[in-house]
Amino acid sequence: MESAEPPPLIQLANNIAIRPWRPTDAPSLARSANNRKIWQNLRDRLPSPYTLAAAEWWIAHCSDPSNWPHVLTYDATGAEHRGERLCADYALVHTPADGGAARAIGSIGLAMGTDVARRSAELGYWLAEEWWGKGVMSEAADRFCAWAWAAFPGLVKIRAEVFAFNGGSGRVLEKMGFRVEGRARWAAFKDGRLGDVLLFGLVRDGV
Fold first, then answer.
1. What is residue 184's three-state secondary structure?
2. Are strands 157-163 and 179-190 parallel, antiparallel or unpaired?
């Protein structure tokens, strides 16, 4: 008898879920990410073209516990305690209503700050073009940040950097309560052009 698959991290509307990456996601990840429109709104570390080998590397990277951040907690004196490692990068997958195989349609995760910024993290995400304009990322990012506050109790701030020309991503963040905290002029060189970067921030309630 085959063992049942573990439940997703977060179940969203429209048969979409946030869950850990699996090796079987590689082909659909490569198909979804191999889109220049997606690449134009992300840092260059997302390769273009996006190959099956790139997808396999990313899944292996996210699945290796040695790459996961530690859960940090702080006591009443401010002393820091380092706990277990916890995955912070996940797949967005869609499962057809007819019960077919799930397909990777995006990615969402946190890059934890280091040194004096270690109580903050940067939110990153992308979504397959066919799902744009349907409210998917607004729901996914909002639910994911709620999970992050609970999973990483030492986290006090979530940041995001958005190219100024990427209005869609900025609107997703503003709907979640992120505030524009600054504008870094000519801070990015992407696809042969210089542009500004908008700096967004969201602070934990009660801080």
1. strand
2. unpaired
Q: Which amino acid is at 139?
A: E
Contacts of 206 (CB under 8 A, 6+ apart): none
Q: What is the pTM of this model?
A: 0.94
**Rounded Cα–Cα distance for residues 198 and 185 (Å):** 9
Token pair 């280091």 is at which residue?
A: 114
Dihedral of alpha carbons 59, 65, 67, 70, sign: positive
**β-pair partners for 92:** 18, 106
Q: Distance (Å, rounded) from C-alpha 92 to C-alpha 20? A: 9
Which stretches does DSSP call E strand in the chain? Answer: 10-11, 16-19, 70-74, 80-85, 89-94, 103-112, 120-127, 157-163, 179-190, 193-203
Task: Identify the bridge partners of residue 110 per DSSP, sorted by sequence position.
Answer: 123
Sorted by sequence, the CB contacts under 8 Å of residue 141 that are 6+ apart come out as 108, 123, 125, 172, 173, 176
What integer pLDDT is reported at residue 176 of this predicted model? 93
Dihedral pair phi/psi, residue 93, rounded to 5°: -130, 150
**What stretch of H or E contains 150?**
helix 136-151
Could you report how far apart the first and last alpha carbons of the chain are, in Å? 49
Output the pLDDT for position 6: 80
All residue ranges of the chain with pLDDT < 70 are 1-4
